[in-house]
Design goal:
- The complex is a heterodimer of chains A (236) and B (287).
- With 236 residues, chain A is of the alpha/beta class.
- Chain A is 33% helix and 25% strand.
- Chain A is globular and about 50 Å long.
- The N and C termini of chain B lie far apart (42 Å).
- Classes of the chains: A alpha/beta (236), B mainly alpha (287).
Chain lengths: 236, 287
């Protein structure tokens, strides 16, 4: 049984349908990457799983239990934490307060504490008294990841964490993922950076226009397959 | 020396206005909700204290302590069951609902207590005073001011030193992302309004023991509270205290020139500050 899975998931923004019968699965200890162009439905998929968007109860399962209709705070309490697109740090909270707020809804003990997060991203300790939004984009992303880890999640959902960051910064951030996995979290990464996603993922799904167009292990899917699934056309 | 006395009495009066305003500031600072029934809720709490004092023979300070949990529960329920449904991008629904609530509270109090003026007796404290050189300071005005300072310090401690305070600020910043942290915004808003009602009860204690009150005086308290909050800068507790003091000093200064100018002088001070600093004296950096 998968740790987390969606079954025939649909999602709507008003009358606009953004997801059409999406099936994805995440096994315990696994890292899954969801790739696709802008507007493919990747972020909508994570917003659905995290409870920001309401879905049919049976469309999302966590350890076999239907969680599709639960609001975001209850999803967090189950152990599913989200690193939202755009980082979304709280401007009126310092770096340390932004981290501490991450464990508000789930106080289970685990590998992640303030000290563990500072150990993962040492620069945050130096700047812990600064407002979170006063940091560079890369440091803000570290805060957003650390904030999600503070709840000691079983599943970490990462939405476009490389967006707007310099390649060297992206590399630094992705360097933290093996430790996050080793600490016991299973990870779902939504990415437009295909190369980066394929490097860290055990399995990859490609989305286009709200549908899964390709899935497989990174070594098994070819460049042409991904190109076709990503853009809807074969490479010439 | 008369001017010094005027200023000191004005500062002490400002403590009362700061108490009126602190709950309003808390609620507005967290959920951008303008509660037009705030003044009437102060009057409601004053009547609750009056009932406890007269029916049970309690000391007014003890009665206020007893009233606090009841007012917290009322505030929590009011926010959770009614006001949360009005929050959204449109500012009109909360204004209309709290305006209606103001009318409901006033009429319910008139029905139950009539239009007669009431007062809560504080015994010998009412006339007690302390002599500081040439200035005579009433014990109740001094207690009011010290209570206002304690309330502002307490609210700042809750806001900036506790997990609940972090949740208040995070929810105020971004409700959706706060939900992703496991925070339940509806519950946080209800706790904030409950806390505001505890402050309202403290304000009601001094309103009821220092002056006469009747069911219809709420809206005037609301105006003083609004002015104090806006002078201080929306969402700033120390700013709210400063705002209350400015209105208090302006009113006593106006009254010392001509008693008819007391209220007008407070409003003029408010308008002058608004002209010079449209965002108030201590606006929050994040607004």
């Amino acid at each position: 049984m998968a740790l987390l899975e969606t079954r025939n998931l649909t999602a709507f923004y008003g009358d606009f349908q953004a997801l059409f019968g999406v099936d994805v699965a995440l096994d315990a200890g696994e890292t899954v990457a969801i790739i696709g162009a802008n507007g493919a439905g990747k972020s909508t998929l994570l917003r659905s799983i995290s409870g920001v968007l309401a879905n049919g109860v049976d469309q999302i399962l966590f350890e076999g239990r239907p969680i599709g209709g639960l609001p975001a705070p209850e999803i967090v309490a189950l152990g599913i934490a989200m690193v939202p697109e755009g980082r979304k740090l709280f401007p009126s909270l310092s770096v340390e307060e932004n981290l501490l707020i991450g464990k508000y809804g789930r106080t289970v003990s685990g590998a992640w504490s303030l000290e563990a997060v500072y150990d993962l991203f040492p620069v945050l300790k130096e700047r812990r008294r600064n407002p979170g939004t006063a940091l560079s984009g890369g440091q803000q992303q570290m805060v957003a990841i650390g904030r999600a880890l503070m709840s000691n999640p079983r599943v970490l959902l990462c939405d476009e964490i490389s967006l707007g960051l310099a390649p060297v910064v992206i590399k630094d951030i992705y360097a933290a993922f093996p430790r996050i996995r080793a600490a016991g979290a299973s990870i779902v990464i939504v990415e437009q950076d295909i190369g980066q996603a394929l490097k860290v993922a055990d399995r990859v799904y490609c989305m286009m226009e709200g549908r899964i167009t390709l899935s497989g292990r990174p070594g098994e899917v070819g460049r042409d397959d991904i190109h076709a699934a990503y853009f809807g056309a074969k490479t010439p | 020396m008369m001017w010094l006395d005027t200023i000191v009495q004005g500062i002490l009066l400002g403590g009362l206005y700061a108490l009126f305003a602190a709950g309003l500031s808390l609620v507005f600072g967290i959920m951008r909700l303008v509660n037009l029934a705030h003044g009437d809720l102060i009057v409601l709490a004053a009547f609750l204290i009056l009932v406890l004092v007269t029916a049970l023979g309690l000391n007014p300070f003890v009665a206020a302590l007893v009233a606090m949990p009841a007012m917290f529960a009322l505030g929590f329920a009011l926010q959770y069951l009614v006001l949360n449904r009005t929050l959204g991008p449109d500012i009109l629904p909360p204004l209309l609902v709290t305006f209606g609530l103001s009318i409901v509270i006033q009429n319910a109090l008139l029905e139950r207590f009539s239009a007669d003026s009431r007062r809560v007796s504080a015994g010998a404290l009412e006339t007690a005073s302390l002599q500081f050189g040439p200035i005579n300071i009433g014990t109740m005005p001094l207690l009011t001011f010290l209570s206002a300072i304690a309330v502002i310090i307490g609210l700042n401690l809750v806001f900036y030193r506790t997990s609940l305070g972090r949740a208040f600020r995070a929810t105020s910043d971004d409700r959706v992302t706060a939900g992703l942290m496991g925070i339940r915004p509806d519950r946080i808003f209800a706790i904030a309004t409950g806390l505001a009602m505890v402050v309202v009860t403290i304000a009601a204690l001094y309103l009821g023991t220092r002056a006469n009150f009747d069911p219809t005086i709420g809206p005037a308290r609301l105006i003083y509270a609004f002015e104090a909050v806006i002078i201080g800068g929306l969402g700033s507790f120390w700013g709210t205290l400063a705002g209350g003091i400015i209105i208090g000093v302006a009113q006593t200064a106006g009254a010392s020139i001509n008693p008819e100018w007391q209220i007008l002088a407070g409003h003029i001070a408010f308008l002058l500050v608004l002209l010079a600093r449209p965002r108030g004296l201590f606006p929050r950096a994040v607004d």
